[in-house]
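REVIEWER CHECKLIST
Item 1: Sequence provided? yes
Item 2: Single chain? yes
Item 3: Sequence as submitted:
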Amino acid sequence: MKARIFVAAMLVSGMAAFAQAQTATPVAAPATKPAVAPAATPVTAPVTALPEDQWESLQAGFWFGVPGSITNSTVNGWKIGLPICDGKGNVYGLESSLFCSATDNIMGLQLSFGCCMAKDIDGAQIALVNVIDQKFSGAQVGLVNKCDEKGFQIGIVNFANNATMQIGLVNVNKNGWMPWMVLFNIQK
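Item 4: Structure as written out by the authors:
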């Protein structure tokens, strides 16, 4: 029951964050006339705007990059892998899969029976193997966990450069209280 409430809260918070971001519009600065004529400027090629990322509240992936629409999309809700999902986009909410969840940027929960991989995550990863390449704020729960930055890890084997706290059989924390410890390790 608690897990269902947590997942529902993550989905609602992801959708609320997206709605708030969509309603915020930038305010243009008032135009002013220059007091002196500007100097000649070099001619440059026109800047073309990149297409806006598509976003969805529910998205399904079947393999790495299949369908192609999952590669650079933003999901505000639930991204599901049947059996695998990945992408260079963002997930605000829940990403779950049978074998591998591997979207680059996650704000919420990343869940899989196999492995979870991300570059940046603000939330939690739960899988047999969890890997975070860059920024991490939250928790990893699995048999093997690896992160470069701060966070909380619970597993059999935990690897980090600067984890806040590790609980497991073997805990390697390069900048921790001890470089490696059995049962637990903490940040300096």
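Item 5: Key structural point noted by reviewer: Residues 143-188 form one domain.
Item 6: Recommendation: ____
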